[in-house]
Amino acid sequence: MEILAFGVTADEKPLLERAFEEHFRGRHEVRCLDVFLGEDTAPIAAGYEVVSSSVNAELHGRVLRTLAAGGTRMIAQRSTGFNNIDLDVARQLRMTVSRVSYYSPYSVAEFAWTLAMAVNRRIVRASNRTRDFDFRLNGLMGRDLRGRTAGVLGTGKIGEAFTRIAHGFGMKLLGWDLAPNPACVELGMAYVDKDELFASADLISLHVPLLEATHHIVDAAALKSMRDDVVLVNSSRGGLIDTEALVAELRAGRFTGVGLDVYEAEAGVFFTDRSLEAVEDDTLARLVTFPNVVVTSHQAYYTLEAVGEIVEATVSNVADYLAGRRSVNTLVPPGG
């Protein structure tokens, strides 16, 4: 059997092909495409029983029905998040769906800190200047983080890894989650309600999944309650922040810095080259013009270790489907 994988990067392709070969020994192979799975590309999957999708695939009802009509019975998503998949329709179609429930939390936590330090110490601005042989320090002053307060929204595996780094910096720790993480409490984290966290933290990092309850958890009111000199980082999901409200606060001259690895309207834009095209998204176009904002293209997970774990889990998910098994990665079991 040949499995069709959508949205595969050039770095990911050899890892995916090697993992399939090592696991299946030629019994099942993978065909890698760099296009993303969505309404326009779903017909390509006709005749493929198993397809693999990337984090920015658009798997709403129409796409799933097109896949099912073409014979697809299983979707192996190569990400932890699955807010892009209509699971109810998948169940109706009796289509198996899996995800990657775990990969290196350090990849995302370390990148969140990379964004925090980049905006705090004006690294992008400094780098752009020195490329033009401008070595002035005006406007590049940052702040020590030691003794300041880090607010971590979501203290699961990634939030815990972020917290450990904050502890290493000597920061005070505030957390918000449905239940305290004992490891974070041991580090000295005080759990508070999110309104207190927003109002008190000098650095806020988001590590909660995107669910109906967390959509725009950082809304206009939350943004207004934050300190004028806060550093805000989002390396989780773009929909956690009301981006238009964020732009309004940035236009008012607020915030020391904002680091975004995700954007709520990133589907169809991130992971693609739009450098020669007119920018149609006015909000994104405005966002990247602020000198205290750094936007990256959903790359926090993109380390050799994390991608390797994602690939191995994906191959295991395909093997489980072929064997009629379910695992912790199964979102919709065989037969719906």
Mean pLDDT rating: 96
Provide the gyration radius in Å. 21 Å
- The total number of structural domains is 2
Determine the N-to-C terminus distance: 22 Å
Give the class from helix and strand content and strand pairing: alpha/beta
In percent, how helical is the residue content? Answer: 25-40%
Question: Could you tell me the number of beta strands?
Answer: 13
Overall shape: it is: globular
The CATH superfamily label of the largest domain reads: NAD(P)-binding Rossmann-like Domain
Return the string of H and E elements: EHEEHEHEHHEHEHEHEHEHEHEHE
User: Poorly predicted ranges (pLDDT <50, ≥5 residues)?
Assistant: none
Query: How large is the count of helical segments?
Result: 12
Q: Output the CATH class name of the largest domain.
A: Alpha Beta
Task: Describe this structure as you would to a colleague.
The protein is of the alpha/beta class. The protein folds into 2 domains: 2-103 and 303-332, 3-Layer(aba) Sandwich (Rossmann fold); 105-295, NAD(P)-binding Rossmann-like Domain (Rossmann fold, 3-Layer(aba) Sandwich). The protein contains 12 helices and 13 strands. It has helices spanning 12-24, 61-69, 87-92, 105-120, 123-131, 157-168, 182-186, 194-200, 220-225, 243-251, 282-287, 304-323; strands at 2-5, 29-32, 50-53, 74-77, 96-98, 149-153, 172-176, 190-191, 203-206, 231-234, 257-260, 293-295, 330-332. The strands form 2 sheets. A 7-stranded parallel beta sheet has the order 8-7-6-9-10-11-12, sandwiched between helices. A 6-stranded mixed beta sheet has the order 2-1-3-4-5-13. Helix 4 packs across helix 6. It is globular. The relative contact order is 0.14. The model has no long low-confidence stretch (mean pLDDT 96).
